[in-house]
Design goal:
Elements (H helix, E strand, L loop, with lengths): L1 H25 L7 E10 L2 E9 L8 E10 L5 E6 L8 E4 L3 E10 L8 E6 L21
Antiparallel strand pairs: 1-2, 2-5, 3-4, 3-6, 6-7
Length: 143
């Protein structure tokens, strides 16, 4: 009976250690972050672009929030707290040719933070204007 209890205790301890190791292995660096330009507009004499960040899916099932730090051009850096299942940021705006840089960190239910995924983009206007409407014909005279 003593050996059975000892074996059960050892197996229980081994299971706890295995769970801890798996938790650490799942907290790897998040995947790549992408930028999608969603629109353009003029603010005064400045050409501005609207964009969102497309985030990778969380790497672990116990991610409860995501910390996004972002700097657009020479503006002050912003820190955002997103839900653990967020795969897209809110919409931002920046000037044409501004650099957008930052990092994404996943946080699990125990407060453990993943290694940061850093990113950097340059906002470039690649949106073509809409196709012109139909062309008409006006007869201006007759000879």
């Amino acid at each position: 009976m003593f050996w059975n209890n000892r074996i059960v205790d050892l197996l229980t301890e081994l299971l706890g250690v295995s769970r801890s190791i798996l938790k650490v292995l799942r907290l790897r660096k998040p995947g790549l972050v992408f930028l999608v330009v969603t629109g353009e507009f003029k603010k005064g004499h400045t050409h501005m672009l609207r964009f969102k960040l497309v985030l990778p899916a969380p790497g672990a099932s116990d991610v409860v929030n995501r910390k996004l730090t972002l700097q657009i051009g020479s503006a002050e850096p912003e820190s955002l707290q997103l839900p653990g299942d967020a795969v897209e940021s809110q919409e931002f705006e920046g000037q044409d040719n501004d650099t957008v840089s930052g990092q994404l960190v996943d946080v699990d239910d125990a407060g453990n933070e993943s290694e940061a995924r850093t990113f950097s983009f340059v906002l470039v206007d690649t949106l073509a204007p809409p196709q012109p409407g139909e062309i008409g014909l006006v007869v201006t005279g007759e000879e």
